[in-house]
């Protein structure tokens, strides 16, 4: 039994879950359940226990770097072997790029509680208030050519979508190239930056921003009309969540780093194809009528597929196919 499965189970249910049901679902004894519950209580979880009713999760410690380290220990070979936590930072990507330039171990993670200059693509801003979301950047040194760098974004999107699905019941999809979506609302984004010579990446930083406990009241201007968070989506799905419990950033960060570790190893051993294939399965873009904005140019067509380099193959109305390496996709209804 993975330790966090018990927490996942308690989070999925709205009221008490009996010890017998937990034991059955996880395939362990009731004594093992009781031991795990106590372990999580020591880690700061408040779990109500009643001999007649079972267990109910009241509160989770929201972001614990120690717990992330402990949960990863022995389960990852590259990602998160070193974790640097900063309470507030300009941008975790900028800090990680600086660290990587001076040299740091591959898989080093910079994670922050808040960013004052969170970045999106093309100099856009990433809303990064304290105490709410995941802002983390991972240093990678893959032996791939700069033109293959987009696969790092695809790999991260696949890892994040899979991880969030494991921790919650939220149906996350990926919108090309870097958006994590729930329906047509943006849950998170990925920003990959690289330092490269002519034919080789010297280092890359993958920056991941995911809205975990962001409320609508935290979103200024029009952001609330297109952004969402795990907490907002949970509220939609559960009566108890209407009262608003916070989701654990720790659990999501741990799952993301485990998935990143798994997919990175697949990339290095097997190549890009399995990642492109999985990306296609998780995508909400493929097969849809889309508008793609590339700088000042706008193309409309059907999103056919992506190639192994992550380029979007847009089928234009004249039946020709346009390969697009970067841009902003709007799904047309
Ligand atoms: C992205 O850019 O989606 C990449 C976001 C990457 C953020 C992470 S946080 C950790 C690391 N450190 C950084 O400094 N960055 C990375 P893009 O596709 O360009 O989308 C940017 C647009 O998303 C903005 O122009 C807003 O419209 C919207 N946006 C900003 N903050 C948002 C948020 N928290 N949630 C949803 N949408 C947001």
Structure description:
By secondary structure, the chain is α+β, with helices and mostly antiparallel strands. The protein is 32% helix and 27% strand. It has helices at residues 5-12, 19-26, 30-42, 65-72, 92-102, 150-167, 230-237, 249-270, 273-282, and strands spanning 46-50, 54-59, 83-89, 109-115, 134-140, 172-175, 179-182, 185-196, 201-210, 289-294, 297-306, 312-315, 321-324, 328-331. The strands form three sheets. Strands 3-4-5-9-8-7-6 form a seven-stranded mixed β-sheet, with helices on both faces. The chain has a five-stranded antiparallel β-sheet with strand order 13-12-11-10-14, with no helix packed on it. Helix 6 crosses helix 8 (249-270). The longest helix is centred in the C-terminal third of the chain and has 22 residues, at 249-270. The chain binds biotinyl-5-AMP.
